[in-house]
Amino acid sequence: MKFLKNILLLIFPLLFLFITLQYKKEITNYSLTTVDPEMAYLYNSLAITQGHLPYFVDHPGIPLQYIGATVVAVTHNF
After folding, report:
1. CB atoms within 10 A of CB 5
2. Distance between CA atoms of 21 and 36, rounded to whole angstroms?
3. How would you class 43 by CB atoms within 10 Å of its CB: exposed for 0-12, middle for 13-18, buried for 19 or more?
4. Domain ranges in the chain?
5. Residues 2-14: pLDDT tens digits?
6. How far apart are the C-alpha atoms of 38 and 59, rounded to whole Å?
7. Cβ neighbourhood burial of 52 (10 Å; 0-12, 13-18, 19+)
8. Rounded distance between C-alpha atoms, residue 65 and residue 77, angstroms
9. Which of 1, 9, 60, 65 has the least CB density, counted as fewest CB within 10 Å?
10. What are the φ and ψ backbone dihedral angles of 40, each rounded to 5 degrees?
11. How far apart, in whole angstroms, are the C-alpha atoms of residue 44 and residue 52?
């Protein structure tokens, strides 16, 4: 009985390892997991220059959007 219990306890970590390795193999191109928010930051910067509130609100992106709005407003004149 104890042997069967140990075998069952060994199956779950091995199954988890197998599933993890299969998933890692599927996402090696990282196109399924990473989303680059540059365009959202740019669109929000443009919205800020027009007096609208940003739509994409993310913690590190808010100062970047206001800096982008300043850069867009300054460079638009040139």
Report:
1. 9
2. 25
3. middle
4. 1-33, 35-78
5. 888 888 888 988 9
6. 14
7. exposed
8. 19
9. 1
10. -65, -40
11. 8
